[in-house]
Automatic annotation (TrEMBL):
GO terms for molecular function: oxidoreductase activity. Belongs to the short-chain dehydrogenases/reductases (SDR) family. The keyword Hydrolase does not apply. This is Retinol dehydrogenase 11. InterPro entries: NAD(P)-bd_dom_sf (IPR036291), SDR_fam (IPR002347). It comes from Parnassius mnemosyne (clouded apollo). It holds the Pfam family adh_short. PANTHER family: PHOSPHATIDYLINOSITOL-GLYCAN BIOSYNTHESIS CLASS F PROTEIN (PTHR43157:SF31), PHOSPHATIDYLINOSITOL-GLYCAN BIOSYNTHESIS CLASS F PROTEIN-RELATED (PTHR43157). Keywords: Oxidoreductase.
C-alpha cells in the first residue's frame, strides 16, 4: 500500500520521501514511482523502525535537510515475523508497528508544526487495521514473548496506534497555534506481502485469497490518501477512518486513561528524556 500512496502523492506534484530498511526495495520503489508518474522529486532514505538509533538518525536527517513536512504517513508494518526482543528490548512486532512510529512522529513534530497553517494543517496518518478490534493494552506484557497466538501482538500494535493518535491530539490542543492533525485508518482486508510472514506457502495462499476476494493494495491505500488529502478530514484529529469515511474504532480505543498511560510508558520505553520530549513540542 505504501507504494500506491507514494505514487498518488508524486502524481499530485509532491516531493515524496520513501523510507524503508531495504535499499534494493527502496530503489525499486523510486523507479516504479518515476515510471508511473514521471516525477523526479522522489527520494529513498534508509529507515529501520526495529532500531531506535535508526529512527533517531532518520529523523535528524529529515530535520536537517527538509524545510517543511506536510504529511507523515506511518504505514510501515510487519505481520508475525518473529517472537523476540530487539536490541532495544522491545518486541520486534510492537517496535516496528508502533514504538518506532511513536518515536519518529514525535521527533518530526517540530517540522510538522512549522509547516501547518490555519485551514491547511500538517497531517499525520497512522495505518491501523481491522485487527485493532481484538487488540488489548496490557502494560505488564507490552513486550511479552511466547504468546500462544502471536498474531495477537500485531493486533495490540494496531490498537496502540489509534490510542497514540488520540493522546497526541489531546496534547496538541494544549499547544498554542499548532496546526497539526493526526488520524488513524483501517485499510480493510488487503492482499499485501505482509501475509508472507505466515510462511511462504501459507502466506501466498492468504495473499491470493485477500487479493482476489477482498481489496487490492491500490484499493487499500485509498483511505490513507483520503485522510491525507480531503479537506474535511483535515478538520478533525484523533479520529478513525474506514472506506474513506469517518467511522468508529473499537471502544477500547477511546479509553483516555489507557491512552495517557500508554503515552507515558512509550516515552519511557523509547528512552526519551523529559528535555527531549519537551523539545518535540517547541516551535522551530
Amino acid at each position: 500500500m505504501g507504494l500506491r500512496i507514494a505514487i498518488d502523492f508524486a502524481d499530485r506534484g509532491a516531493k515524496v520521501i520513501v523510507a524503508c530498511p531495504y535499499p534494493d526495495e527502496g530503489t525499486s520503489a523510486i523507479k516504479t514511482v518515476n515510471d508511473k508518474t514521471g516525477s523526479e522529486n522522489v527520494i529513498y532514505k534508509y529507515l529501520d523502525l526495529a532500531s531506535l538509533e535508526s529512527v533517531r538518525s532518520f529523523a535528524a536527517d529529515i530535520m536537517d535537510t527538509e524545510d517543511r513536512l506536510d504529511i507523515l504517513v506511518n504505514n510501515a508494518g510487519v505481520g508475525v515475523i518473529g517472537d523476540f526482543l530487539t536490541k532495544d528490548g522491545l518486541h520486534i512486532i510492537m517496535q516496528v508497528n508502533y514504538f518506532g512510529h511513536f518515536l519518529l512522529t514525535l521527533l518530526l513534530l517540530p517540522l510538522l508544526k512549522k509547516t501547518g497553517k490555519p485551514l491547511e494543517p500538517s497531517r499525520i496518518v497512522n495505518t491501523s487495521s481491522i485487527y485493532h478490534n481484538i487488540g488489548k493494552i496490557d502494560f505488564k506484557n507490552l513486550n511479552k514473548t511466547n504468546y500462544w497466538y502471536k498474531f495477537q501482538i500485531y493486533a495490540h500494535s494496531k490498537l496502540a496506534l489509534v490510542l497514540f493518535a488520540r493522546e497526541l491530539t489531546c496534547r496538541l490542543r494544549g499547544s498554542k497555534d499548532t496546526h497539526v492533525v493526526i488520524n488513524s485508518v483501517d485499510p480493510g482486508a488487503v492482499g499485501t506481502n505482509i501475509f508472507y510472514s505466515f510462511g511462504p506457502i501459507r502466506g501466498a495462499i492468504i495473499k491470493f485469497l485477500f487479493y482476489n476476494m477482498f481489496k487490492t493494495p491500490w484499493e487499500g491505500a485509498q483511505t490513507a490518501i483520503h485522510v491525507a488529502m480531503d479537506k474535511k478530514a483535515g478538520e478533525v484529529s484523533g479520529e478513525f477512518f474506514k472506506n474513506c469515511k469517518q467511522a468508529s474504532a473499537h471502544w477500547n480505543a477511546y479509553n483516555e486513561t489507557v491512552a495517557k498511560q500508554l503515552w507515558e510508558e512509550s516515552v519511557r520505553l523509547v528512552t526519551m528524556s523529559d528535555e527531549e520530549l519537551n523539545r518535540c513540542f517547541l516551535d522551530l
